[in-house]
Amino acid sequence: MRKRFLFLIIMVIAGTLIAGSQEPKIILTPRPGPEPRINGAKIFGVRPGSPFLFTIPATGKRPMKYDVLNLPAGLRCDPETGQIKGTINKPGEYLTTVMVTNELGSAKREFKVVCGDKLALTPQMGWNSWYVWENHVTDKIMREAADAMVSSGMIDHGYMYINIDDCWSAKPGSTDSTLLVEPRDKNSMINSNRRFPDMKALTDYIHLKGLKAGIYTSPGPFTCAGHTAIYGNEEQDIMRFVQWGFDFLKYDWCSYDNIGRRDTLPDLQKPYLLVSKILKKQKRDIVLNLCQYGMGKVWKWGKEVGGQSWRTADDLGGSFEGIGTALFRDGFDVYSRDSLHLYAGPGGWNDPDYLLLGYLSNWNGKTVPTPLTPNEQYTQVSLWSIVAAPLIFSGDITRLDEFTLSLLTNDEVIEVDQDPLGKPGHRVSKDGNMEVWERQMEDGSYAVGLFNRGENETNVTANWTDLGFSGKQRVRDLWRQKDIGEFKDNFIVMVPGHGVVMTRMWALAE
Ligand code: GAL
To answer: 85, 202, 318, 481: which sits with the fewest CB atoms below 10 Å from its CB?
Structure first.
C-alpha cells in the first residue's frame, strides 16, 4: 500500500515537472530601440465634418517632438503628444509627412489622410473588456485600461480603441443593485448602469489620452448577457452614443431572434442596415463591428450593410479550455474553406474575434493565464496579421507580462496587419499539418507564414510555385526582425508544434 502511495506521489511530481517545462515563453521580438521609429497605420479615413483624432504611434526615447507636414486645413498636430485633431470639411486624399524627433535623431514617414465616406482603411487595433472582465466591467476598469494602453507603450505601436463590451446598461430583474437602474430616460434614451456613472466623462478621459472609445449593444431588446439593448430605440440610442462620444460600436445579434427572423439574407441584413443608416447621418465617425458569428456568410455582404468589420465565426473563447481548438478551426479552417480573403479590404475587415493572450477569465470566477501555448500565441498573432484581422487584445491589459507585451508589439508583424494595400492573405498550400499562407504587401513584397498545425516540430516548405514567385528572394524573419538569407525555388524551415515562422520576402533583381 505504502509503495503504491509513493509511486503515485512520484508520478504527480513528474507530471507537474513535465507540464511546467512545456514550451518556454521565448521572446523573439527585439525591444524597441531608443531612436525614434514611427509605427502603426500609414493611412487613416475620416468623414467630412467629423471630429478627427489620430495619435502618431512612435517608439523611442522620450521626450519626443511630433510634427506633420502638409496637414489638410482643419487639422493640427500637438508637438508634445503627437495627437492630430480637428475636422476636415473638404473631401480628398491628403498626403502628409509625419516627423518624430528625440535627442538621438528623427524619423520621417508618409501618412495619408483620406477624407471621404470610408472608415477603417486598415484593421482596427485596440482592447476589449469581454474576455477578461465579462460581466464585471466598470468605469474604473475602462479608465485603467486606457492608462495601461499608454503606460505599457501599446499606444506607440498603433493600438487606439478602448472598447466596453456587454454589461454597461441596465439589467432588468437583476439581484445586483448596481445594475437595477431605469433602462431608459423619459426621452427613451438608454441609461448606463451604476457601474458607469458618467459615460461622457469616461470617453473624455479616453480621448484625452489620444485613444478612442467603443461601446456595445444588440439589435434585440436584450444583449447576450441579458442587459437592455437597442430594439425599438435605434435612433435614440445611436444619438446617445454620439452624445457620449463613442467612436466604435460592436453590434451583436442576441435576442433579435425573438423579434426578427434569420431565414433569408434580407432578414439577416435588416438590423445592420437600420443602424448603419442612422450612423451615417451622425457628425461623428463610429466604426461598426457586426457580431453575428458569420451567419449567411456575412463576409460577402458585411461591407454593403455598412459594417467596417464582421465576426466570421462563433466566440473564439466561448469555452476556455477550447480556445486552442477554436483557434485552428475558426482561424485557419473558416478562412480557407470560404476564401474569406476575397471579400475584405480597406473599409471592411473579417473579424475572427479577439487576441486571447495574457490573463483571461476562465468563466468560473477566476482570471488565469491563456490556455494557448506560447507557440499557439505566436500562431494567433501571425495568422491574424496575415489575414488582416482587427488586432483587438482582450486579456488583462493592466497585467501584461513581458512575453504577452512582446507578442502584441512587434512592429514588423503589425506592419503586415496594417499594410495600406489592405489585401488580406490566404492559404497557398497545405500538406497534412503544414500550411503556407501568403499576403501581398503594398511595396511589392509578400508576408509568408509557415505554420505547423501538428504537435511535433517539423520542416515546412514554402515553394515559389505555390507563392507565385520566380528567382531569388530575400527572406526576413518578422518575429526576430532579422534577415535569414537569400533563397531560390523554395524556403524550408523547422517550425515548432502548433507554431509558426512568419517571414516577409522581397524579390531580388536577377
Ligand atoms: C457574444 C459575443 C461576444 C460578447 C458577448 C457578450 O454574442 O460574440 O463577443 O460580446 O456576446 O455578451
So the answer is: 318
For the residues of 130-147, what is the DSSP string, one character each? HHHHGGG--HHHHHHHHH
Q: Give the phi and the psi of residue 374 in degrees, each rounded to 5.
A: -55, -40
Helix (H) or strand (E) holding 363: none
| Cβ contact 139:195 at 8 Å | yes
Q: How far is the CA of 261 from the centre of ligand 1 (A)?
A: 19
End-to-end C-alpha distance for the chain, whole angstroms = 75
The atom of ligand 1 lying closest to the CA of 224 is 12
CA angle in degrees (0–180, nearest 5) for 132-134-138: 95
CA nearest ligand 1 atom 5, residue: 224
Q: Do residues 68 and 55 lie in contact, with contact meaning Cβ atoms separated by under 8 Å?
A: no
Query: Cβ(172)–Cβ(166) under 8 Å?
Result: no
Q: Which atom of ligand 1 is nearest to the CA of 353?
A: 9
Residue 271's SS3 state is helix
pLDDT of the residue at 6: 47
pTM: 0.95
The C-alpha cell at 145 is 485600461
Residue nearest to atom 1 of ligand 1 (CA): 224
The DSSP-derived string for 429-465 is: EEETTEEEEEEE-TTS-EEEEEEE-SSS-EEEEEEHH
Whether the Cβ atoms of residue 291 and residue 249 lie closer than 8 Å to each other: no
For position 22, what pLDDT does the model report?
A: 78
320 CA distance to ligand 1 centroid (A)?
Answer: 14
Mutational pocket test of ligand 1: of 169, 315, 393, the residue with most ligand atoms within 8 Å of the beta carbon: 315
> Which residue among 166, 254, 310 is best mutated to probe the pocket of ligand 1, counting the most ligand atoms within 8 A of its Cβ?
166
Q: What is the pLDDT of residue 436?
A: 98
User: For the segment 417-442, what is each residue's pLDDT rounded down to a tens digit?
Assistant: 999 999 999 999 999 999 999 999 99
